[in-house]
Design brief:
The protein has 432 residues and is of the alpha/beta class. It has 25 helices and nine strands. Helix content is 53%, strand content 8%. The longest helix is centred in the middle third of the chain and has 21 residues. The N and C termini lie far apart (55 Å).
C-alpha cells in the first residue's frame, strides 16, 4: 500500500515502523476470510485491511482522531488470525498496538467510556483489588440486565455477569516460592502466576507446578511478581504497560541471577505472547533492552516445555476432548501442535473444533468492552464445539475458559489440568 508520510513524520520511530508495516499490505483480502468481526459484521472497515486503511489515514493526516475511526479500531479483537493468514507478512499486531496508543493519546473518549476503561486498568491487573471488586459484584449482579439496556453501561453489565459466584480455596502448590522437582532436577524454571488467574483459577498454576515437578523441574514463583502488562498494553495504555513490563523484567533478572533459569513458563497464552514480545516493546529503552531480550528468549508456553521434557501420561478415563486453541497461542505464538500432541500422549481422544481459527470473543478485555460482539462470537464458538460432542473442552488460556464457560454446561478446563490428572495429579474439579 502506498503511503505519504512526510520526512518529519518518519523521523518518529513509531511512525517509521507503522509506515513499513502498512507498505507491506497489498490489499489482497485473504485476511477478511479469517477476521472474526468481518465474518460477523460484513463491514470492510471492520476487516484488517480496512483498519489498516483507517490507521494509515489517521497517522498520515495528523488531524484529530474521529469517533468513527475509533469505533472500528475498538472492534478489533487483536486475535491475530489475520497475521497467520497474510501472505505478505504484514505485522498487524504491532500496527494495531501502535494505533491504540495513538488513539489513547490523541482522542478524548466520552466520560463514561473513559471511566470504565480507567476502572478496568486499575482493578483487573491487581489481584487484591480484583478480589474486592468481584466480591462487590455479587451484590450488584441483579442490576446487570438493567445496565445492559443502556449501551454506554453495557460493559458494566458484562463485568457483573462474568464475575465469579465464589472463589476457589488457596492452593499451596500455587503459592510464591520454590517448588522442588520430584527426584533428580533437570531444569529450573520460573512460572508467571498471572494476575486474574491467581485469583480466579489458582488450580491452573497448581497443576502446572505439579506437572513440572514430576518432569524434573524446580519451579520458582517469584513473590511480588504482578501483571506482565498485557492487559493495559492492548488497551493502548503504553506508559502503564511498559512500567509493568519493566518491573517484571527486573524481577526475572534478579531471580535468574541467584540461580540461572532454563525457562520462564506462561500458562496463560495472552501473558506468554506478551513475554515473547518484550524484546520488541522495550527495544527503545536502553536500560531495559537487554533484559527484555533475555526474558523473551526464555519465555515458553507450558505446552512447549512439557513436550520438550518428554511428557507421558495415562488418562484415568478415555475422554473425548475438544481442544480450543486460544488465539494468542495459535496466532500470537504459533504454538499449535504441542497441546494436541500432549493430550494425545496422555491418552485422551482429541477432536478438532470447526472454525478453530475464529476467536471466542474473550480477547483480553474485549468481552468487557465489546460485550455484544463478544457474545455472538462466544455462541458461535460454543455451537462449533458442541458439534463435536465432547466430554470436556480444553484450552490454554484463562480468558477463553471464562468466556466459553459462561455460555455452556460442557465442562471446560485448562489443558494442563488434564495433563496433570493423567500423570498422577487430582481430577479437575469441573469433572467431578
Amino acid at each position: 500500500m502506498q503511503t505519504h508520510f512526510t520526512a518529519a513524520q518518519l523521523s518518529d520511530p513509531k511512525i517509521a515502523e507503522s509506515n513499513a508495516i502498512i507498505r507491506k499490505c497489498v490489499h489482497c483480502g485473504f485476511c477478511t476470510a479469517t477476521c472474526p468481526t468481518y465474518v460477523l459484521l460484513g463491514d470492510e472497515l471492520d476487516s484488517p485491511r480496512g483498519r489498516i486503511y483507517l490507521i494509515k489515514g489517521m497517522l498520515e493526516s495528523g488531524a484529530p482522531v474521529t469517533a468513527d475511526v475509533v469505533r472500528h479500531l475498538d472492534r478489533c479483537l487483536s486475535c491475530l488470525s489475520c497475521v497467520t493468514t497474510c501472505p505478505s507478512g504484514v505485522n498487524y499486531m504491532h500496527l494495531i498496538d501502535a494505533a491504540r496508543v495513538h488513539v489513547e493519546e490523541k482522542f478524548s473518549r466520552p466520560p463514561i467510556d473513559r471511566a470504565i476503561r480507567f476502572m478496568i486498568a486499575q482493578i483487573v491487573p491487581e489481584p487484591r483489588r480484583f478480589r474486592i471488586a468481584a466480591e462487590l459484584a455479587k451484590v450488584a449482579r441483579p442490576f446487570a440486565a438493567l445496565l445492559r439496556r443502556i449501551p454506554a453501561l453495557a460493559p458494566l453489565a458484562a463485568m457483573l455477569e462474568l464475575a465469579p459466584a465464589r472463589f476457589p480455596p488457596v492452593d499451596p502448590d500455587a503459592q510464591p516460592g520454590v517448588h522442588p522437582a520430584a527426584g533428580e532436577r533437570r531444569y529450573r524454571v520460573g512460572l508467571l502466576a498471572g494476575c486474574v488467574q491467581s485469583v480466579l483459577m489458582p488450580q491452573i498454576n497448581a497443576a502446572t507446578v505439579r506437572l513440572l515437578n514430576r518432569l524434573g523441574a524446580d519451579v520458582v514463583i517469584p513473590p511480588g511478581l504482578g501483571c506482565c502488562g498485557a492487559l493495559t498494553h492492548h488497551m493502548g495504555r503504553e506508559r502503564d504497560a511498559l512500567q509493568r513490563a519493566g518491573t517484571s523484567i527486573d524481577i526475572w533478572l534478579k531471580e535468574s541471577a541467584e540461580a540461572p533459569l532454563d525457562a520462564i513458563v506462561a500458562n496463560a497464552s495472552g501473558c506468554g505472547t506478551m513475554l515473547k514480545t518484550y524484546d520488541h516493546l522495550l527495544r527503545q529503552d536502553a536500560g531495559k533492552r537487554d533484559g527484555a531480550r533475555t526474558v523473551s528468549r526464555l519465555a515458553v508456553d507450558i505446552s512447549e516445555l512439557a513436550l520438550r521434557l518428554g511428557y507421558r501420561g495415562e488418562a484415568p478415563r478415555r475422554l473425548r476432548v475438544a481442544y480450543q486453541s486460544a488465539c494468542s497461542l495459535q496466532h500470537g505464538q504459533k504454538v499449535t501442535r504441542e497441546p494436541v500432541a500432549l493430550l494425545e500422549a496422555a491418552g485422551f481422544e482429541v477432536v478438532t473444533v470447526p472454525e478453530g481459527h475464529l476467536c471466542c470473543g474473550s480477547a483480553g478485555t474485549y468481552n468487557l468492552l465489546q460485550p455484544a460482539i463478544a457474545t455472538r462470537l462466544r455462541d458461535r464458538k460454543i455451537a462449533n464445539i458442541a458439534s463435536t460432542r465432547p466430554d470436556v473442552i480444553a484450552s490454554g488460556n484463562i480468558g477463553c475458559i471464562t468466556q466459553i464457560g459462561s455460555g455452556t454446561t460442557i465442562p471446560i478446563v485448562h489443558t494442563v489440568e488434564l495433563l496433570d490428572w493423567a500423570s498422577g495429579g487430582p481430577m479437575p474439579e469441573k469433572l467431578k
